[in-house]
Amino acid sequence: MSKLQRFTDRADQQVVLQLDKLNKIFNTGTPLQNHVLHDISLQVSRGELVALVGTSGSGKSTLLNVMGLLDVSSSGELRIQGQLVQGMTEQQRTQLRSESIGFVFQFHHLISAFSVLDNVLMPLMLRFGKPSTAQVEYAQYLLGEVGLTQFMHQSTNRLSGGQQQRVAIARALVTRPALVFADEPTGNLDTQTADEVFSLFERFNVEHQCAIVIVTHDPRLSARCPRTIRLTDGRIVYDGASADLPHLFASPL
Ligand SMILES: Nc1ncnc2c1ncn2[C@@H]1O[C@H](COP(=O)(O)OP(=O)(O)OP(=O)(O)O)[C@@H](O)[C@H]1O
Ligand SMILES: [Mg+2]
User: Is the residue at 81 inside a domain?
Assistant: First the structure.
């Protein structure tokens, strides 16, 4: 049996993310040309929780940035909720990103000059201006869900690393995105805090049915995702059930 396994599209699943032969080449046509992603094809359906793993430099962040519309591909096709991204204007891409995608990074990028609540509301304020009462209530609900109600009106710089990352998760979810991309969101946290933060992703994944693609170097956490995609030198070398990940690949990342 081929080592390369892929999840096939099932008719009853709603595909929210689809890549067909996607390539990314940095510095095209210069001596620094670097072909980082090679013919990446994959699909993610509504409500999936997917770990993206691979050694340092294998292209995980590059892939996440392209899928999350923070960077553009060099060739191939990317569809977000059925919409073909190639050919869109910058403005259309920005709109699609703000409607459909939430991001969580290793470093939370919170703004300490603003309160915790305003940080969570930021994606809505950027899109709509002053948030509505319903939007503020939803942000408050999310802060409750991540256990931070009592800190709502404080500055973010009085929070611990784990608490700040929980604010970043609430911020990523406040637009009710169909897709959440998280790039090593627990990479900066101790084991117990990482477990707690990861549990929040699991909960939101089930409760809100948002698809989540999470980059992690922690095999304990990737094992908790039903599906794992593994990159080696910018190519998918495994895409399948985390439980079936060949032993060959289970070595430390
Ligand atoms: N803006 C850029 N210009 C040129 N090359 C880049 C750029 N960004 C990333 N690369 C290259 O792309 C390759 C993949 O980098 P990437 O950051 O995607 O890896 P990664 O799998 O996320 O690694 P890590 O686990 O260390 O975060 C590396 O060789 C890197 O040097
Ligand atoms: Mg990276």
Answer: no
Q: Give the tens place of pLDDT for each residue, 99-127.
A: 999 999 888 789 999 999 999 999 999 88
Extended beta strands in 122-165, E state? none
For residues 77, 82, 86, 88, the Cα torsion angle rounded to the nearest 10 degrees is: -170
Residues with CB under 6 A from ligand 1: 26-27, 34, 36, 54, 56-62
Answer yes or no: is 82 within a domain. Answer: no
pTM equals 0.90
- The encoded tokens of residue 60 equal 């995980």
Q: Compute, in angstroms, the gap from residue 57 CA to the centroid of ligand 1.
A: 5
Q: Which helix (H) or strand (E) holds 33?
A: none
Domain count for the chain, please give it.
Answer: 1
Q: Residue 122's closest CA among 72, 171, 65, 73?
A: 171
Instruction: Give, for ligand 1, the residue of 61, 67, 217 to mutate: max count of ligand atoms closer than 8 Å to Cβ.
Output: 61
